[in-house]
Amino acid sequence: MLIAHGDLGDQLASERTFAEAEAILRVNFVSVVSLLIPIANHMEVERRGRIGVITSVAGNAAGLETTPTAPRRGAQRLPAGLRTRLYAAGVTVTTLKLGPVDSP
Fold first, then answer.
1. Which has the closest alpha carbon to 58: 103, 94, 7?
2. What is the pLDDT of residues 41-71, one digit of tens each?
């Protein structure tokens, strides 16, 4: 299973309006969690599987915690926690940090 999605959103608007901030959080963090939890649970029961999550290098940027980048740090930490939890079940979890990507 590969999870590969996200949205930069409008940084200035997200710093001033909750609606824009919430939209960014839903795409960049909540949706990732909503996919990872049931997938991880299923693979843990099956005792096999591979999960890959493409995250943003923006989650590594110390001191730049703006609304668009803050959920990216969480989206990096969740796979790390799942990696530890699922190791004994034979499930691998890989975090992929590609850097800038030109996408439609």
1. 7
2. 999 999 999 999 988 766 555 555 555 666 6
Can you say how many angstroms the Cα of residue 60 is from the centroid of all Cα atoms in its chain? 13
pTM: 0.78
Structure tokens at 7: 């949205």
Answer yes or no: are the C-beta atoms of 28 and 71 closer than 8 Å. yes
CA distance 100 to 102: 7
Q: Where are the alpha helices (DSSP H) in 15-103?
A: 18-25, 31-46, 70-86
Residue 7 in contact with residue 28, Cβ under 8 Å?
yes
Per the structure block, which two tokens stand in for 35? 């996919």
Residue 96's DSSP bridge partners are 54
User: How many Å apart are CA 8 and CA 68, to the nearest integer?
Assistant: 6
Give CA–CA dist 14/54, Å, rounded.
23
